[in-house]
Amino acid sequence: MGNPVIAPARGIASSEHWGAVCKDCQRRGDEASFKYPDTWVRDVVERGGTRSDRCPVCRKTHVLDARSFAAPYVDIDTIGSVTDPKFPTGPLGGLGPLPTEHVRVEVQSDLGAYDFGLKDANILNLLHELQQKQVAIVVAGTGTGKSTFLPYRLLVPPEGAPLHLAAHGPIVVTEPRRAAAIDTATFVATKLHQSTVGAGSDIGYRVQHEPAYDSACRLLYVTDGSLINWLRDGSFKRFGAIMVDEAHERSKNIDSILGLLREILPRHPRLKLIVASATIDAEFFVEYFGGPGAVFRMDVPAYKQWGYGRPLWPLKEIDDEFLAHLDWQKVGPSEEDLRDLTRRFAELRVVTGPIEPGPRFANWRDRMPEIVADQVLKILDGTEWGDILAFLPGKNTINTAIERIRAGLERRPNGDKVDVFELLRTSPEHIQRQARGEKVDPTRRRVVVSTNIAETSLTIDGITFVIDSGLIHQSEWNVETATKRLPAVAHSQDGVRQRWGRVGRKAPGWVFPLYTEEQFQKVLPEHTPPESTRDDLEQFALMAIAAGVSAAREFVWPAAFERKSETSNPADEASRKIFQRELERATQALVTRGAVDMDGDLTPAGRELQAFSGSMGHAMALILADRMACAIEMATALPLLSDFTIVGKLLIFDRRWEVTRRNQARRIHEATRSGCIDDLDVVLKVYAAWEAQPDPVAWAEEHLVSHEALLKARRARDELLDPLSSGRKSNEVRRVLPELAPRVRAILSRVLTDHTYYRGASGWLPLLPRGERRTWDLDSQAHCVAAERVIAFQRAAARNARVWLANLVQASEWAVDIPGSWVDFALEAAQRLRGSSGMLGTTLDAHLALTQEWHIDRSYIVEVVEEAGGPVLRAIRALGSAPVLGSVTEVIFADAVGEAASSTNDVIDGDLPEEISDGVDETTIVANADSELLDATDIVTTQEAIGDTEASTDLLPQVIEADLESTIVGGDIAALAPAGVVDPTQEAQFVTLEDIEAPDEEDVDPWYSVDASVTARHQTPIEVEDVPVTTPKFRVLDGILPAGESCVRVVGYEGLGEQRLLLVVPERDERLIEDRMPIVFMAGQEVIVRAIEAVSGWGQPFLVATETQTGIEVVLEYTDLTFNRYDQHITQEIPPGSSFPVTLTGFDRTYRTLRASRLDQIHDDLMAALQSEDGTRFICPARLDTSNALGQVQCTLERGDPTTGLVHRYDVWRSILNRGKVLSTQGRRLIAHLSIPKSNGGDRVATLGCDKVPEGLAEMLEGSLVWDEKRKVLSTGPLMSPDLRDLLIALDSNSEWRVGIEQLWHASNMLAVVAVEPASADDVQEYLYQLRDRFSLGRSVTGRIKNIDTRRGVFVELEDGLDGLAYKDKIGPEGVIDPGRYFSVNDQVEVTIEGVNERGQIQLAMPTAAVPGKLDQLRMLFPSDAIVIGTVNKIDSNLGVFVTLEDGISALAHRDKISPHGVINPSEYFSVNEQVEVTIEGVNERGQIQLAMPNAKIPSRLDQLRGRFASGGILIGTVNNVVDTLGVFVTLNDGLAGLAHRDKIGPEGVLRPSRYFAKGQQVEIRVDSVNERGQIQLAIPNAAIPRKTDQFLELFPPGSTVTGTINNVVTNLGVFVTLEGGISALAHQDKIGPHGVIDPLQHFRKGQQVDVRIDGKNDRQQIQLSMPGVSIPPQFEQQQAPYPSGSEATRKVNNVAHLAMFVIIVVLFLLGGVLLLPLFTSTNNDSEASSPSTPIHPTSVSQNPDQRQVCVLYNNKEGFTKVNVREDARLDAAVVASLPNNTRVYIDNSVVARNRDGFRWIKIEIVDTNQEGWVVNEKVLCQ
């Protein structure tokens, strides 16, 4: 292992202890004897003591030993000295050594030895801020020591700390879980403080049932429930500080604590609050506690010695960028490089693709235990060291994963060196210690599979790898139904980061997430929603009222806090509304239950409720039951009714069982429930009978009752009884008395009125409605059908309009209606229930007597005996053996079709949450809807619906879809089943006749004998002594019993007690029941059966019949009676007693039952009814029947035999009827078109995929039977015949081939109505006429929203069940963008009829719908600055990228808004259908959504341009502007524009581009360059432009006068003038003036503006100029001296290149004569010599043309102002004052400025400025 990086030392923590040791520990020689802290000894002294005696542990042992003494025990101090402490002596014997001398010992802890991210500087900073502020929010990442170092350093602050919190009272730290509080306190005490933990120490903890603290403790770790009690009773006043750790979890308790403290803190300024977490919404809590001015926020980044555990994302490439954060360490036994290890471990990832959301999420979630196990095994195979921690949501998923891991380890050579542990909240203590404690053998590897218990505040040493499923069981609360769901959902980003933080603290760590990085960002929510928004708040409201919060609904709890608009989001607002609704419901429920009076104060019963947790309704019922002496019964019934589905979990049943087993279980359970009026009777009866048995396990097995469920209920009962007052608790040891059920029923009726429902006209309605008033249905297993009022302990809302009630108790109406207090109710109950005969009308023993002797499904030889009360049965002997339900069903000649059909059952996982922060008190179920079908999309799986520790696998709406895949996942039925009961998911063993060795032919004739040993494996012999002795009355279900002996089978009971009847069916051949069971039937044999009863509600419906010749029982599932898998009611169509032929498909040995099918007969009858159209579609007359539960209309073909149930019934969607213009009225005739439903490929064929086909298939490929060799698919058209099926099966004896052909045949006969047509042409007009008459234009009707199409609108089901569509633009005054935001399925809405079109479609409008304006909708849907994901639908190079957002709305991201610098051609960087991230910039007044893509990775604009025009080729552009002084502006094809300067146009440039180019003209251009400013510089080289001189002459023909600028003056030549377009032309000196000029320098200067005449051009194409209008004297006058006598001259020499010229001027002074010879030498143009002169004011300078001038420019509002000065002139205040008003100087210090008039460059030096910034002094220097 490499050397770790040691963090800077955190200083020394000093504390004092007394050197006293326990005398008993001293006697034992225990060196680690308990040492007493200073505070403990101080308390001893205050109580009058002198010195310590025994430590707390020894003191308890001493007390126990003293109690065993016969005589009173007296402890007298030893007198005298003791030389040997181990052998003390004294007057009364060895009473123990004299305690050692007490001395104060200073203990110093070097905190620098511990590697925390927090430092002493952080603590000092925190304490400094807490001097002024009461609240601190500490966001400290994993590994910083926020749970350990931070609290301890508050207890023992660093040197120089400005505040000592412990001096004001104890510091209390809350932890969310019991284990976290204990482990953290122990670490802080023993490691950091170097003392013990608990009573008498500075550091202790308080958890439920284990208080380890006393008044000496100054740092106390507690669970949050303890702190709530202290806040409520005022104990918090003695605290110095409170620290709420792991606040990100937002449990109800944490929110309660924070809400109460927010109210308390202003009244107690000394108390400080610290809210800490690694992943917390700090902004929320800062705002909640008053904002930054009142709250200090401290952020400490996550600190790991080896770096934070970085996830190895699936599909993520492990490149250098990923590895950049890792240090170059050599780690591991092999001393590999950390980066190399990371690359190698990345190859161990098992998830190689993203997890698809939506419906596939459930499949992925169900597979998660398997994925986790595979990941664990792959890490173990690919590594040699390091422990593994894996996270799964619940107990059952963990058990499944562990089983798979252990099975995989058994197959590995080193598997025995790996220990696998589960870590659950309910795990035994020793298992938890092994899972999270130090390993005994460091050479063994450890795998820990945990729930979120290991997520926070718990460190498991040695963990190197973390595997995260990303799942958690998270509660969801339905306010309307007051039920909790605990589905497995995606965890929050905060939560999974906590999981990642379990590694990397003391050694390197790697994280294997089983989700992609994209899913982490998009699927996982950022924060965990507060528990108070997803749970029952009755206990929360009770706590608030007890704490003095009089108006809990108006109190500002964290979940009710309304954030500022800029920080809030829609999710926060939705959660806040849910919390407020639930808090209002909870408060009202407390008033209804009598816990709170009308003034909002607690009643005596409410105060007693505070001792309970969980459901307050259940607690109140228990308190009242205690007063009415039935607490035992109440505490027994509550967990059984709340936590278990009666049929499924208590009475073991699985709808996936084979039908014969389901039939057997049904009979047993119906017998158990017979005589009971509701489920309360059932649970009390079952529990009482179970606990009365000497062998309860055997009894539970025989009666198919869950022994484990009853044990769990007994434990729950003990916990419920524990909080009851010991003075009144009916805690005497007695058994449950079912006779007291009326009392329990009355109490529940009084207390649970909010869960009471009454029978309405169309269903069950809540007695106290909440929210929407909807109709409820009873579960198909409901055992309370005769009641008018029921109490439903389990309630579920499906995704359609239907909701279900189960676990029912019949409500006593009188109990609800009694006014007054609980005392009045108790008196009335005592009066009404006095003399009640109890629940059964007899004693339990009498009720159970019949079941003890006459066993269900046992056959007996009996005789009928006439007695005075009527005929009775007398048993002669018992036949065969009773079936054991735990054994596997074995079926002879099994029907593969039945097996395939049964696989369509919708089966769910029974996995349930284990780690929930609070107890679960209410259970939500999904009711069994076997009798009424639901659409597959309406199913809520049990795992999502159950809100407890048990799941239901039986109570599900039964749905069978044609394309529904069967996913059989192991539930937890097996865990609840008694010993010997096999896993219910195990498939039945199907044995064909070919599998049994046949006897010799002479022995058959026609019986087929099977050896007894075959059946002995599946039967339990019953002794002869089991022959019943009672003679019960009876009822025969099929026929009558003849006189004398006969054979019967017991199938059930009915009635009460001694009046109970035995239900039997006759069996005509007892040979079928003997141990050597002959078989008289063959597979495919046709027999006649007689229908006995149709069974529904027990899995798929089935029919029970008997074979007419032998009387043996025959069972047919509904799929054996129809090809229509949706027609479950077909079993109800067959009248009892009717006979019909069937084909035998199997024999169930275990239950002695035949399996049969009627499909062959149905096929033959159907073929005779149908007329073929094209071989794939058939037509047949039919009539419409009533609708089924899916909203489909059923049509029955006019064929078959209804008297025997031989009907051909198909479901038709109303849309098909509307398209066919057929009214959906019962009895209407029509023509039905039937075919196989279209597959994905669009062909109406049935297909079978198989790798290979048997020989001989080629000869049978004809007609519609086709083999596709490429796809390996065998297909056939509709209605494959049974004969062809049998021929195909005979090709190969392989069972898979046989099953596949059976499935193919079944699919080919599974037709559907694909179209309809009216029976006559008049029916079409009748259809439209009636439709328009009923739905006339403008009529307003109320309907129910059936579906919401976000692209089209809202589909509304109208009065008669017909659907209409309100398009989005017809909803509200301006239309609606997203109907789903304002409407929900099942909403009642008012619509207006807008017409019925020719296709029979009803068009609706919703003009009065409360929908905001369209602009407001857009702004709410797309708030500014929101970041969303959209899809590119169009790319416009000139505009940008069009993106489709939510609800199909398209918006434009302009190309200037793409990336920080824009994009030139978006098509180069984006493609259609690409997913992009966009930012909403706003919605303008025209309703256009403005987008931006600031994070798009686009090169800079300059790089884009240069990359685009690098080639320099010829392009085509469009002229968009022409400026003669500049050139031509051209727009390119992609919207870019550039300038072709006029010098770049044509071969020589162009003078006036407008003469040759026009706006909109197409031109050929060349891109020359892109300058640094991103300007595109163009050229038009091929433009047909004349030469420049020709252009000029076209503009100014000879004789024209133009103005030009002198650019040079040459003596003896003339003046060069610059004309338009930069053309330079010469005005020869001879053509200047009327006479020419001798020396042009005397008359002209460079830069002078002159008027010239165009004379033409010479042979060299040069333009010739003249200046005739210049006033020049005659040449003879020009030759005179220019200076008069006595004048001073300054000579200027210009345009002398490479020439030295000496000029001597002799001036003769006429008066006195003085000779002045100035000498000028010039080698540079513009050089001059000047006589010295004094500074001249600018105004005088401009008047002297011979004085050389310079110009300074000042920019004012009107333009440039020129001030001319000499070179050596100074600008002073006078100069500035002479400037125009408002003139500002725009020249900085030492800036070089150029004169616009062509003068030389000058340098300006600012000398001074005034206060307003004006230049008051500056110097003009020559450059």
Describe the structure.
The protein is globular, with a radius of gyration of 49 Å. Helices cover 23% and strands 25% of the residues. It is an alpha+beta fold and 1823 residues long. The two termini are 73 Å apart. Helix 7 runs parallel beside helix 8 (252-264) and helix 19 (616-627) packs across helix 25. The N terminus and C terminus are likely disordered.
Could you outline the blueprint of secondary structure elements for this entry?
Layout: E1 12-21, H1 23-27, E2 35-37, H2 38-46, H3 56-67, E3 104-110, H4 120-130, E4 135-140, H5 149-155, E5 171-175, H6 178-192, E6 203-207, E7 210-212, E8 219-223, H7 224-233, E9 241-244, H8 252-264, E10 272-277, H9 282-288, E11 295-300, E12 330-331, E13 336-337, H10 338-346, H11 359-382, E14 387-391, H12 395-410, E15 418-423, H13 429-436, E16 445-450, E17 463-468, E18 471-473, E19 476-478, E20 483-485, E21 488-490, H14 493-500, E22 510-513, H15 517-522, H16 538-546, H17 570-593, H18 604-609, H19 616-627, H20 631-643, E23 647-648, E24 651-652, H21 659-673, H22 679-691, H23 696-702, H24 707-721, H25 741-751, E25 756-759, E26 764-766, E27 776-778, E28 789-797, E29 803-810, H26 813-817, H27 822-833, H28 844-853, E30 859-867, E31 870-879, E32 881-883, E33 890-892, H29 896-902, H30 942-945, H31 973-976, E34 989-991, E35 1008-1009, H32 1012-1016, E36 1019-1021, E37 1033-1036, E38 1045-1054, E39 1061-1067, E40 1078-1079, E41 1086-1095, E42 1102-1107, E43 1113-1117, H33 1130-1133, E44 1139-1148, E45 1153-1157, H34 1159-1169, E46 1171-1172, ...
Parallel strand pairs: 4-10, 4-11, 5-8, 5-9, 6-8, 9-10, 14-16, 14-17, 15-16, 17-22, 23-24, 27-29, 33-34, 37-39, 43-45, 57-59, 62-64, 67-69, 72-74
Antiparallel strand pairs: 1-2, 1-3, 6-7, 12-13, 18-21, 19-20, 25-26, 25-28, 28-29, 30-31, 30-38, 32-36, 33-44, 35-40, 38-39, 41-42, 41-44, 42-43, 44-45, 46-47, 47-48, 47-50, 48-49, 50-54, 51-53, 52-53, 55-56, 55-58, 56-57, 58-59, 60-61, 60-63, 61-62, 63-64, 65-66, 65-68, 66-67, 68-69, 70-71, 70-73, ...
